[in-house]
Amino acid sequence: MFGREETLRETVPRYSVDYREKFSDDPEIRWTDRLTLDGTWSGNLFQFYVRVVQKLSADLKLPFQLNTDLFRKGETVVHEAIREALVNALIHADYLGQGGVIIEKFKDRFEFSNPGTLLISFDQLLLGNVSECRNKSLQTMFTMVGAAEKAGSGIDKIRQGWNSQHWRSPMFRERMQPDRVLWILPMISLIPNESLLRLKGRFGTKFQKFTPLEVQALVTADLEGWVDNARMRQITSELATDMTKLLQKLVSIGVLTQDGQGRWTRYRLHAEFDSVHKEIDSVHKEIDSVHKEIDSVHKEIDSVHKDIYKNEIPDIEWNELIKIAESTRQNKRLTHKEMESVLLNLCQKHWLTRRQLGELLGRNDDGLRSRFLTPMVEHGFLRLRYPEKPNRADQAYTKN
User: Which of 55, 115, 128, 49 is nearest to 86 (CA)?
Assistant: First the structure.
């Protein structure tokens, strides 16, 4: 609780606490802020708590200010929930386990992860007011400094805080090998409008017939990728048997599909109604539309090219121009004056566009215009066919 990092590492070799802030969408940026054992601070749980609780609450659009006793002034139920989740991870962690305590803050959620397993049943956890703390001395000390509530009330505080904002219910997960407990606190509306719109698009008129609990199950599957009995009981106060019946009903009418059996059963939205396919089809239609527009532009360009190449310059004269430019096509290292001389010879008798000149010389037409044609017009060596509109796509040049 109050030790120094070097002592902690000696007595508890696997001791580790880590705060990570991940706000960037750039995969190259692993985190935008981090606090871990790096030798710049004491590294004990009390200092970790004091620093991290403020970082977690910093961006909430709710009033918050630490009192002289560090904890209570201006605190809302959401701040209480975050504080309880942090303390919960610290006092229930198995510091002899793997991975250490990891606290992560994202744009849309908080994640609290600690080594160890749950010491009470899942049903007891849902009922609340029941606690079996792994580190009772830590719990007592956090309670005495005002950072923790009485035993068993922390989970209730977390739920109350999230319910007050109509956010999706906190998600609990227990993992094995290595043993870890994970709490996810999503800052997402219980039933977001965008999710409802997606589901209405999937199911059409059928969606109007679903009960509120069925809608909640479908929204959960849409937002979180899947839904199961345990997750529905975290969101609602319904019995396990009722949740199983509800989910099986949604499978029977073809809106959910079942993965696994028994306690490992998960349910996903039926692929038949997959909105991703509709979005992909929509994108394909847009791409096809763009391709049609591009084809139309290409046809116009081809038409211009045909007019320029065939109608204005006879084949015999075009072949003569090819001969004049032949040495230039083979030599990519002409001096500036040599290139100007070739251009003047080509434009001696004809109006030639930059595309024609690029074709004849084997050069990029944009580069020809910027490096030679425009300067030669400005210095009076060449003149424009359409001087009033110098940027015309079919602009042509001839010797002045």
Answer: 49
Q: Tell me if 222 sits within 8 A of 269, measured CB to CB.
A: yes
Specify the residue for token string 């800052």: 187
Given a contact cutoff of 8 angstroms between Cβ atoms, the answer to whether 33 and 55 are in contact is: yes
Rounded CA-CA distance 218/223 in Å is 9
Locus of tokens 């059928």: 206
> 11 in a domain, yes or no?
yes
Q: In this structure, what DSSP letter does residue 373 have?
A: I
The 10 Å Cβ neighbour count of residue 194 is: 10
Q: Which of 186, 215, 248 is the last residue of a domain?
A: 186
Domain residues for 390? 313-399
Query: In terms of residues, how long is the chain?
Result: 400
Q: What tokens appear for 116 in the block?
A: 């160890």
Q: Over the stretch 333-376, which tens digit does the pLDDT of each residue have?
A: 889 899 999 999 999 989 999 999 999 999 988 889 989 999 99
To the question of pTM greater than 0.85 for the whole model, the response is: no
Residue 308 lies in a domain: no
Question: For residue 207, with 0-12 CB atoms within 10 Å meaning exposed, 13-18 middle and 19 or more buried, which class applies?
Answer: middle
| CATH code for position 257 | 1.10.10.10
Phi and psi (nearest 5°) for 94?
-95, 100
b/e 302-313 (16+ beta carbons within 10 angstroms → b)? eeeeeebeeeeb
Residues 173 and 44 in one domain: yes
**229 and 99 in a common domain:** no
User: Please, what sign has the CA dihedral across residues 190, 194, 195, 201?
Assistant: positive
Query: What pLDDT digit, counting tens, does each position of 274-294 carry?
Result: 544 455 456 556 666 666 666
102 DSSP assignment: E
Alpha-carbon separation of residue 182 from 170, 203, 269, 381 (angstroms): 10, 33, 25, 77
**Do 34 and 55 touch, CB atoms closer than 8 A?**
no
Total number of domains constituting the chain:
3
